[in-house]
């Protein structure tokens, strides 16, 4: 193989058109062109207010649930304590009861609470039995407690009753058969719930007041926590504003552990943008310098009215075209490299290149082998152009056999391209990566193929080397690209 450069003229145009899939937007602009208009960022609301609102809602739910539960527990405890006093009086009343000679119930000793003797005092008792007059406490005066049937299977019952107009009664009653009597006696003790309700009311007032103070305190703590916790983000905003205004080149202030990775990524992005800008300036300078000499030659020939002006113009225009193509390829690759999601499947790209090359060189046979699921970190268009240049050179300068093998090597994917040409001496292989370098001038070409391949591959963090094929005897190209998996 005497040379390894891209074809020129019609073949090159055909190959470039085959793989360069320009996507046209509805507006007619190419995808990827800078739109000069900055994207409009629509805020979704304050993060501080959102966190405070969520915390306040959660505090309200927890305190409400806890307050209701605690209210029920304490209310039940106070009520049980009230009922235990009634139960004590009822037990004392039954213990002091006996049957008189006429078969009625009487108390052999008075109950200790003075309120049983005061009319309408709010504390009452009553004993009643079938066939006998009711035995009420003096506090009942001209009233009596209602006697309702006891639920089946229940000996003691406690309930609230509205039978008196001066307040709700808490009634505890029990059916007992006293010794010496066959009558089932109903013993009842009742007390107005006023004291019980006042205790419950006071308890609930205290609970509501305490929980309001607790909730307010928790919300204040939440506001302080959110404000202090998000303060580094406000500080970060000022630092980014300083970078944008040119007051600083990097963000150097120390940040919490949760924000530090973001700072590292921002600084890395700033460094990346600076490298991009520096590369753009360097390429623009190189292009300007490369075009300066051909333009000077054309200008001098035109001013001298040289007879060879046409040939000089065509020659220098081709030189300028090579430089423009080279720098445009680098600029496209650099621009696409910034996309962190760039990835392409190797096998479909190889199949597409095989179809295109076999159409250009019908005599060539391209054999593909190796891993079929390899995915590399590169734009598909750039991968097509790289593989297209390398495989087309192998078909163009070989004798008709091209082997392409895909292998995974650690974090890289290697694409091995071999041909059955005459090969290239080791001391001349490095020259092929220079712009415009050609070892065979018999076949058309511009000498830019491998130079562009090398530059684009290195932009994506890969490498390309030239060796000698042991199987076919021609050139062996080892292309390594970063793997996605």
TrEMBL record:
<keyword id="KW-0472">Membrane</keyword>
<keyword id="KW-0418">Kinase</keyword>
<dbReference type="Pfam" id="PF02518">
    <property type="entry name" value="HATPase_c"/>
</dbReference>
<dbReference type="InterPro" id="IPR036890">
    <property type="entry name" value="HATPase_C_sf"/>
</dbReference>
<feature type="transmembrane region" description="Helical">
    <location>
        <begin position="210"/>
        <end position="231"/>
    </location>
</feature>
<dbReference type="Pfam" id="PF08521">
    <property type="entry name" value="2CSK_N"/>
</dbReference>
<protein>
    <recommendedName>
        <fullName>histidine kinase</fullName>
        <ecNumber>2.7.13.3</ecNumber>
    </recommendedName>
</protein>
<dbReference type="GO" id="GO:0005886">
    <property type="term" value="C:plasma membrane"/>
</dbReference>
<dbReference type="InterPro" id="IPR013727">
    <property type="entry name" value="2CSK_N"/>
</dbReference>
<feature type="transmembrane region" description="Helical">
    <location>
        <begin position="51"/>
        <end position="70"/>
    </location>
</feature>
<keyword id="KW-0808">Transferase</keyword>
<keyword id="KW-1133">Transmembrane helix</keyword>
<keyword id="KW-0812">Transmembrane</keyword>
<dbReference type="InterPro" id="IPR005467">
    <property type="entry name" value="His_kinase_dom"/>
</dbReference>
<dbReference type="InterPro" id="IPR003660">
    <property type="entry name" value="HAMP_dom"/>
</dbReference>
<dbReference type="InterPro" id="IPR003594">
    <property type="entry name" value="HATPase_dom"/>
</dbReference>
<dbReference type="InterPro" id="IPR050428">
    <property type="entry name" value="TCS_sensor_his_kinase"/>
</dbReference>
<keyword id="KW-0597">Phosphoprotein</keyword>
<dbReference type="GO" id="GO:0000155">
    <property type="term" value="F:phosphorelay sensor kinase activity"/>
</dbReference>
<keyword id="KW-0902">Two-component regulatory system</keyword>
<dbReference type="InterPro" id="IPR004358">
    <property type="entry name" value="Sig_transdc_His_kin-like_C"/>
</dbReference>
<feature type="domain" description="HAMP">
    <location>
        <begin position="227"/>
        <end position="278"/>
    </location>
</feature>
<dbReference type="InterPro" id="IPR036097">
    <property type="entry name" value="HisK_dim/P_sf"/>
</dbReference>
<feature type="domain" description="Histidine kinase">
    <location>
        <begin position="286"/>
        <end position="485"/>
    </location>
</feature>
